[in-house]
């Protein structure tokens, strides 16, 4: 099921474009991390955006809380299981692997960066940069969008537009919730969004490469066993 006949999770037509975007996103993550290292206060941009978003009342606060739950362990696990199940039902095993590996790598990277950067919010114990919730939501949206581009057979322009639109919508929704609830600064959200944009294309490329190598080895072993 994971042979070369299985569709790649990162279509060849998107590799250069998403690779370039991933490199730019990684640069943004590093720059923001350096700017806000060991900081515990909002920057100018953070303060201006937070004034307009923070402290929303009902019913938007309920929407923000529901959105935030999707990034918590329980909500995130439910989304991952549902997405993996959908990938398997659609006979897209590589995509199922990418859901787990991609989201795991993205959240793991965000967690590592939090400890390296040391930015805090509401006290020394609350590491905030980058936003793990935003990183997870964006990563999952990217994987689903990549799956959709393969299923729909989209061209490079349409596929790139779909992938970026999905990342933008998911990142903006979760990012808004995090800022509205006071859990993150806006620049934390941007860092989380860019973390997913940097990690998912690289992870997708690795999944395809490892799957292709596995199939090649199985094919070689099969040829050796033939009389």
UniProtKB/TrEMBL annotation:
<feature type="transmembrane region" description="Helical">
    <location>
        <begin position="16"/>
        <end position="37"/>
    </location>
</feature>
<keyword id="KW-0378">Hydrolase</keyword>
<protein>
    <submittedName>
        <fullName>Phosphatase PAP2 family protein</fullName>
    </submittedName>
</protein>
<dbReference type="GO" id="GO:0005886">
    <property type="term" value="C:plasma membrane"/>
</dbReference>
<feature type="transmembrane region" description="Helical">
    <location>
        <begin position="133"/>
        <end position="150"/>
    </location>
</feature>
<feature type="transmembrane region" description="Helical">
    <location>
        <begin position="189"/>
        <end position="207"/>
    </location>
</feature>
<keyword id="KW-0472">Membrane</keyword>
<feature type="domain" description="Phosphatidic acid phosphatase type 2/haloperoxidase">
    <location>
        <begin position="96"/>
        <end position="204"/>
    </location>
</feature>
<dbReference type="Pfam" id="PF01569">
    <property type="entry name" value="PAP2"/>
</dbReference>
<dbReference type="InterPro" id="IPR036938">
    <property type="entry name" value="PAP2/HPO_sf"/>
</dbReference>
<dbReference type="InterPro" id="IPR000326">
    <property type="entry name" value="PAP2/HPO"/>
</dbReference>
<feature type="transmembrane region" description="Helical">
    <location>
        <begin position="162"/>
        <end position="183"/>
    </location>
</feature>
<keyword id="KW-0812">Transmembrane</keyword>
<dbReference type="GO" id="GO:0016787">
    <property type="term" value="F:hydrolase activity"/>
</dbReference>
<feature type="transmembrane region" description="Helical">
    <location>
        <begin position="95"/>
        <end position="113"/>
    </location>
</feature>
<keyword id="KW-1003">Cell membrane</keyword>
<keyword id="KW-1133">Transmembrane helix</keyword>
